[in-house]
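hey so i finally got around to running both of the ones u sent me last week. sorry it took forever, my laptop kept dying halfway thru and i had to restart like 3 times lol. anyway pasting them below in the order u listed, first the sequence line then the structure token line for each. didnt double check formatting much so if smth looks off just lmk and ill redo it

first one:
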Amino acid sequence: MRDSPLEEVRGAQAAQPPAGPFRLGADAVLAALHVEAGAGLSARDAQARLQRWGPNELRAAEPVPAWRKVLAQFTDILVVLLLVAAAVSAGLWLYEREAGLPYEALAILAIVILNAAMGYVQEARADRAVAALRRMSAAQARVVRDGTAQAVPAADLVPGDIVRLEEGDTIPADARLIETSLLQTTEAALTGESLPVFKDVAPVGGAAELGSRRNMVFSGTAVASGRGVAVVTATGMRTELGRIAGILRETPDEATPLQVELDRVGRRLGLVVAGIAVVLIATIVVVEPVRDVHAFLGVLILGVALAVAAVPEGLPAIVTAALSLCVQRMARRKAIVRHLAAVETLGSADVIASDKTGTLTCNEMTVRVVATASGRTEIGGSGYAPVGPLCHDGAPLGEALHAEVRQALLAGMLANNAVLQERDGRWVVDGDPTEGALITAARKAGLEAGPVAQRFVRLAEIPFSSERRLMSTVHGEADPDAPLFVAAKGASDVVLARCAQEFIGGLCRALTPERRSAITAVTEALAGEGLRSLGVAYRSLARGSLGGARPDGPVEQDLVFLGLIGMTDPPRAEAREAVAQARAAGIRPIMITGDHPGTAAAIAAELGIATEARALTGAELDTLSREALEETVRTVSVYARVAPEHKLRIVQALQRNGLTVAMTGDGVNDAPALKAADIGVAMGLTGTDVSREAADIVLADDNFATIVAAVEEGRAIFANIRKFLYYLLSSNIGEVATMVLGVLLAGALGLRASGAGEVVLPLQATQILWINFVTDGAPALALGIDPADPAVMRRPPRPRREGVLTRRIWVGIAFVGLVTACGSLFVLDACLPGGFIAGEGTLPYAQTMTFTTLVLFQLFNVFNVRSDDRSAVEGLFRNPWLWAAIVLSLLLQAAVVHLPVLQRAFSTVSLSAGDWAFCAAVASSVLVLGEVRKGLMRASRGARG
């Protein structure tokens, strides 16, 4: 009976983890913690203990204060140069006092502050996205609370929680074992012990070191095999892991290959532009009449401004923001990204090697057939509801057949760790779906879980593993004279090989070679129907002969074969479409399963994965040499009866063929293959903690279609990064080219000084910086969230070693830069007296026109870069954020041109509507010529084939 709420709170306050719990018996530890093993803590008690002991987390590093993040925005060398330029300009103003305010210095400072604000906001968004990602991928623990098994966040564990441990679990806290079944843990991270350590529940005397505490499990280690139940004795910083200072570490910020490449491009571009700036300054000093300190410092400020404008210093923030937004979109589509580099690699995936059960299929098993010695029994019903008839050729079962079926389903029910229960009017399974289907079928045959558990008390278990493909349990009956009952289930061939007899009509008969062949034929027939088959068997064991139930012991030998249980796991409705979509995208789906070859081939054919009628088995893989396997994986798309080491060999063989491989896995032994794959994909529902830790991406719904959706998102984000790179670099190169050519051709363009010692240039330093702020900000961010191109999944995968900036893109960047420079200088020439085109405007008017034309060039270029081959008209209104960014940029430019206070700061004059129209007409040439270039490229591709 539960205590009152007040008593529970008092119990939580009184509960104290004992010192040295490994020295005490399990009952003593439970008593000290005020908890019962079967009922666990109540929710109220757990909450009270959480408030007392705090969350089960290691102490994190202190967060970086906001003021330090703000100051960090001003440490970049380019920003420092701008601040120096602003200081020089302010010093000149103080010296000369030619204007009421130092407008140039104030303008430079304003742009620096606005850029810093934008960088701070982008970093804050990226930090929030990373924090959200960590919350989505937070570890879970299986506990018993309020008498029921449930999953809770590992951070909510408290001393006294009863934790269930299974193969592949990461142990969430230090705990004292109270029940084990062949439990082994890997403790290398804590003790340095390289081999798995066997665990038991017996007290350990003396001051045992960590590695000798066989009745304890420790936070951060993992379950290698077996099962166990433990009571939590320490959480958070009080665990052994928390006490070892050297093991505490923060996850380092990831530098993805893309970010490394962009950093390299930025540095190279910076060096090139710095060289150009130096040459430009030298040219101006030589060509122009630079005769005083004021003119010389003005030229230096211009050179700094040009270098700052040419280098897209906001690129890292934009890339981080784009990747973070992509991660959030993928999470909404049930794909949780653990490593940012996987987002880039997804776009290059050539092969998706997927498991069958639960990924390509629904993982809602239903037993359809029980084949025993006396015939075949069909079982009706669907799902996990324990309702459905049992019949043989449409008629009720005979006595002999009924006895065989009940015995077979009893063995399947006993060798089982799942729980079938009704919640909100719906039958659900806690545990493995296959085991849930066996319990459902047994219930249909009249076997109730409660009475069966009371009669057959479990004494030992030999757990299932992917290598053994077999599970056995040992049970004792209330009658002390009755022998022990061993129930076994597993792959039909494995079970059959361990059997010496067969159960026929209530009697045991010798299993003859003819019957073995007949059973194998039935297995093949069930597989041909698309049914997954399990073999079930039992044996009687004398009470005194149990000893240690070990995988290599006598318990699983000389079994009595009971029959085959055929169950169906229908393909997911969306899987066939996802497979077709993957093939259209040039991605080859491969099925790798531990199931029967016939079942695998049938499901693969139904989904369109393969047309061949056979699957390559693990046994056949073992016979292939390295070279033969490399040849085989080029054509074979279905692999069955494989072990984890086979998965690793298949992945490596595909990679040696130059393919980028995405690999799914769920078991602890799948971790090597997941790590070896270019993209490791773990199952979020059925996967183990170890597999999730080894993976790059975790599927929250274990669905193949989610992998394909993740590939689509990966391709889309890479395309968007290319878009804004193309945009930023082509626009900035246009600015540099305009300034360089403007200085070199100053005389021919009519750009002449009106007085002695005056230096005249195509643009003012503040105007260059303003262009950088207006056009490199909002439009580039909007390109980063551009919707995916509808054709993105109709193109082949991007070559893995292809950089983000290809030769074709560099040609496009040079083309846009040249068009921008020529158009801008054309407007400058047309507005000035003299030059190639006689104009009538003043120098401030010509500079304002050139300034506005450059801004409009870059805004038109936004539409140009959205696709390298499709017309800009296609999908013109699919990105409302892009239109909002363009409108904002136009409003800002209009303010700079027409507001008096900004006119003084940026040396602009007002323009007429006709002037704006002329600038827009010239600037639109980049879009028109871009369309012509794309048309010629499409025609060239069409002519080639």
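and the second one:
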Amino acid sequence: MKETRKKALIQVLLCIRNTAVGLLGIMGWLLHTLLAVLTVGLISAALVCILIYAKVKPQLDECRELAYDKLAQMERTDFSMLSDTVIYDKDGRQVGLINAGHYQYVDISHISMNIQNAYIAQEDRRFKSHTGVDWIATFRAGLALLKHNGQVTQGGSTITQQVIKNTYLTQEQTFTRKIVEILLAPEIEKKYSKADIMEFYCNTNFYGHQCYGVEAASRYYFGKHAADLRVDEAAVLVGISNSPSAYDPVSHPKASLEKRNDVLKSMHETGVLSAEDYSAAIERPLTIVKQESEGTDENYQSSYAIHCAALELMKLDSFDFQYTFEDKDSYTAYMDRYKTVYTEKSDLIRAGGFKIYTSLDSGLQEMLQADIDQGLASYTELQENGKYALQGAGVIVDNQSNYVVAIVGGRGSEDQFNRAYLSARQPGSTIKPLIDYGPAFDTGEYYPTRIVDDHKWEDGPSNSGEHYYGSVTVREALNRSLNTVAWQILEDIGVNYGLNYLGEMEFQKLTYVDNGVPSLSIGGFTNGVRVVDMAKGYSTLANNGIYNDRTCITKILHEHDGEITRDMKASTKQIYRDDSAFMLTDILKGTLTAPYGTGRGLDLDGGMPAAGKTGTTNSSKDTWFCGYTRYYTTAVWVGYDIPRNMPGIYGATYAGKIWKNIMNQIHTGLEPWDWEQPESVERRADPKNGIEDYFSTTAEMRAQQSLHDKEQKKLTDSLNADVEDFTSREINTVEDTYAVKSQYQSITSRLPLLDDGDLRARLLEQVENRYDYFEGIISQMSDTIALYEKQKAAYAAKAQEKAMKDAEEQRRQAEKDTRKNEFLQALQAVEELEYQQPNAQTLVQDAITKLPLVAGDPEQQALADRLQSAISRITTLPTQEEWVAAQAAKQAAEEQAQREALQQAQMQQNQLKSTLDREKFKWNNMEYYGPGGRPENDK
């Protein structure tokens, strides 16, 4: 018994041992596997880290160097406001200064705790505890960086990092800037206290409306010092500094109020604002004082320079500019993006720290201003705002450098509204070379000697003075500025085709509403165009069709970033073919010199070759002259701010004379310089009309291609519409089956003509798939279709039988009408006798013979009676001798009356001559009247 128990116990112990050994083995295997996985993972992670480090090491080294440079030069005075933005002309002379704000640096003791607490709650909740970098927020931003393929989409910056960004770095969100912030932030924290950093932060933020620093913002928005701000007022300023444009309480009070409440909510969440105080602050209305003025007044040069500088900053940030639009949605979306970014860049420039160097020539500026002022000096009417009612604007472009060198936006220096780039006006006929003729010449289908038909048509445009010349050459049509021809040309080449040329030359103010509108051909735009855009457009013609996107900016410096435009390069592109530009320029010379040129008499002194175009809108509400030489292009506009009629004023009058005056002045001392004829241009006779002129040697080939492209576009549009209709229709009746088959055959027969293979294959696939669907339905309807065809055949047979009967009846009626007409002709010959002619009996006998031709006619008796009356009437007629005598007497009486009238006229003539001899001595002869002078009754 004991032995048995002993053996059982031993077996149990062995079982436990074996189980334990097994478990230990499994655990050992698992541990070994885990260690292997961890080892592989660590090695892989190390390799990945090495690869990442190798990739980012150059950037890290650059960041370390940049951080060291910033730290080594760091001073407390750095955390103060930027200097005023200054604009310089081409000679480095200051032409504008933008006050960066009524700035006053205040120490932390003069900054309300409400401001400080609000910034901490909203921007950096661990500000008091971290050492410059909030690693939790940074880790969160890093995850977003990976998620968006390396694009920085959110912050993570502490207040310390933002102080660094505001003071030493750009506003652009980049990996390099973030690393520099991280490297510098702990060093800043070592050098300055938290209170110092908060003080720097509040004094370096920009709050819009030229308010740089919390004290300036407090005084402007609330009329009080920063130390005295209530919590709701402090929340407003914190919201503004996040985005001065978006949360501006003056322009966007609703957005500002929402942002204020968001900041207050953050303060309540962090415990610095009790529930009671939070509720009270939320209920307070948004009240803005606007106590301070917004900065220095601007002039035409500085305002345009700031505008162009903002565009350059947008380019540096790779903003995607757009000038033409497919539809309302794309236009609205783009304008929202543009306005937001443009406003941000403009605000940044006005916040200070920039030196903007321009191509503006102050000497030319003064000349152009004087010419506009003097040219319009006789018009002294003022608007209610004190500005002149009649205004003018002008822009000069240096065609060699492609820079704008002068820009005048109005009369006198008191008016600060720069109409040259801020205002859009209808260009009239000055747009024709740019949108009609230039693009048309590029197609090869149009050239100077091509004959076009100048005529008026219903709902079409009218020419000036309602003059129409029929068949004219393109050269004459442009020189005469014929609206009907321009309209026909743009419709022929395609409205959007011409409009795209303006988009390529970066014309602003275009809109989706302009698409497909033929009135663009004569200047009928939705918004209008800017003077500066017209000047750049004509400068493109002057430069052999090459557009250059230079404005007036040559260099931009920033106090913290140095020359930010050092990599700025002009973009050039061939807009018009060089042969098109040359031929168009040659035609536009005729505007100034041709007998029928609309600007004849405006040619320049000294034989300087020049070309240009007049422009006058309906009722002369806008008048223009745009013209150029090899040296300069000048565009001039004259009109009222609120458009109104200007009878008797045209493009060639005031605008043209201003243009001629300024162009003569700026060309003084310059040698005449004409355009060189391109190799692709030849002068020869037109084989169609014999007229000699310039031709492009590649025009015929391009014309054929253009015609082919038009045919392809027409075919593509037609096929797209038909396929869309085919794939959307259904079969409801038997007739639908025939329509489906007919449309299928029509589409498939035209598809092989389409050049675009991909489109052809795609359309064919759509059509075949739909036709397979239709065939299934047609198969199900086969019995119905057979019955329908049988009924249709019966209907056709009946219709044919009826048509045969109708035709037979018509033939019988035609025979009756022919027989009746034969008798009527004989009857009429008898009725028209004027005397008893020798052949009267023959005529009567012929009519009697033909009377049976009307047998059975409803009018048979009436016609017989007419013949009876005609025979009886012959007896009453005069004989032939009596009739001849009566005619001779009548003629003699008429001749006698004519002789008597002539004698009376001779007597009247003699009387008038006598009166002339008697009165002519009194004319312009005061001596005739003697000392008493001219009697009162003679006056």
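quick thing i noticed on the 2nd:
DSSP finds 27 helices and 16 strands in the chain.
anyway thats it, ttyl
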